[in-house]
Specification:
Strand order of the largest sheet: 1-3-4-5-6-9-7
Number of strands: 9
Radius of gyration: 16 Å
Shape: globular
CATH superfamily: Gcn5-related N-acetyltransferase (GNAT)
Structural class: alpha+beta
CATH class: Alpha Beta
Helix content: 10-25%
CATH topology: Aminopeptidase
Largest sheet: 7 strands, mixed
Number of domains: 1
Length: 183
């Protein structure tokens, strides 16, 4: 479970479910990981593809309170480092809104969060697979998931062009691909 460096932030992570009071901090983390210049400090930025917001407080509140859904937080000494949304959908568990502080990306925190989400999906919810949607042109991100056992499904969903809740596209070839992994 730990990395070779015992002082690593990844080994110090404590997980908990988000509550309403966490919403502003969750929105700030997600925005910092994907949008604007701050996101360029990490490798998960979408700043060259999308501008505008990635999430909003209302959307986060909805997924926190929805049955069989939670936002999982990873903290070190009470400071939010990583988050992810997981939701039981029949035998599958959806994984999304995965965000690591840009200056901490590449240090193992993301792997720990993904493992914790898979543990909950398999152990608590008895799901048989994990699914997610990834923007299909994000090859580096898709390869990261493939190294963790996820596979491209070849199933695509349209990007919600015109719905600024998901951002303002800078290109016209965006779509989502479903990645899946048996649990």
């Amino acid at each position: 479970m730990g990395l070779s460096n015992p002082d690593s932030a990844a080994t110090q992570l404590a997980f908990r479910n988000a509550v309403a009071a966490d919403i502003p901090e969750i929105v700030a983390l997600v925005e910092s990981a994907y949008r604007g210049d701050a996101s360029r400090a990490g490798w998960t930025t979408e700043a060259d593809m999308l501008e505008g917001q990635r999430v909003d407080a209302q959307g986060v509140a909805e997924i926190i309170t929805k049955p069989d859904s939670r936002v999982l937080l990873g903290e070190t000494e009470g400071v939010l480092k990583v988050c992810a949304h997981i939701e039981k959908q029949g035998q599958a568990c959806y994984f999304g809104m995965f965000s690591v502080r840009p200056n901490l990306q590449g240090g193992g925190i993301g792997k720990r969060m993904l493992s914790e989400a898979e543990r909950i999906a398999r152990g608590e919810w008895k799901c048989t697979k994990m699914e997610m949607t990834v923007i299909s042109v994000r090859n580096d991100l898709i390869q990261w998931y493939e190294r963790r056992g996820y596979r491209r499904s070849g199933v695509f969903k349209p990007f919600p062009y015109g719905d600024e809740r998901f951002g303002i596209p800078k290109r016209d070839d965006l779509r989502f691909e479903i990645l899946t992994k048996p649990l």
